[in-house]
Amino acid sequence: MNNERFYKVSKMSNKISLGLIQKSCGLDREKNLSDTLVLIRELAGRGAQIIFLQELFNSRYFCQEMDKKYFDWAETIPGPLTKCMQDLAEELEIVLLVPLFEKRAAGIYHNSIAVIDADGTLLGTYRKMHIPDDPSFYEKYYFTPGDNEYPVFKTRYARIGTLICWDQWYPEAARISALNGADLLFYPTAIGTLPEEDEKTGQEYLQAWQTIQRSHAIANGCYVVSVNRSGQEGGLNFWGHSFVSGPFGQILEEAGAGESTLMITIDLEKIEKQRRVWPFFRDRRIDSYGQITRRFIDE
Fold first, then answer.
1. Domains (range + CATH), the chain
2. What residues are annotated to the active site?
């Protein structure tokens, strides 16, 4: 009887409901958090089993300027914020992906994701590996690159590869996460346009942003979940358009530019079906990729 019940639960768990929260952030970090908690409860009430938040979800995107005062916003993991989220995850029996500004040690800060399972267990932390340094994205001032490579977290409902924003432009990170067994790749994001960039340029950037992530879904035969910020913060206009991509790059659900929540049910069985038809893992020539670890191949 127990074996029969386990088999039924396993079969049912192939279909899981995802919830995405795309929102604007103000200067009041406590309000940002409380507003997000309300949205998490709403999504859980609608049946979401895994809920994804945007990059640095409880604060404005402070990396537009270099100011040491913002280091005071960082929190330890575990800490009060993750404890709050652990209690909520246990209460609602949901998996929570919580991107936050982490203080690891004196002088060492990370752009991180805390992964919390449906029983409230803190499964671990991913720390952003690729750190940008561009106008209004001065992240190298704040964040130390991660050193735990590309972990995959086996949650109650799915195996999740966690990556953050600038990581999304690197196919190597997506590939390693997929090879580590990820059913889906999660990219919390803070991306938008600068004041001097016109609407045409913004649309080109948006299309490139979606295309690169959809290509990760195709190349690895897995789902991709991307959650962006929305609204105007300082000089940045975050364009939203959070989305979920299927294993062949199909956009299954997409938000608009404004604040939004998304709900979608995905079927993990489609990963196996996709990889049988397009067997990219089978045909990889792993004997020929040695040069990939070099910075540049000089003639």
1. 16-278 (3.60.110.10)
2. 55, 128, 165
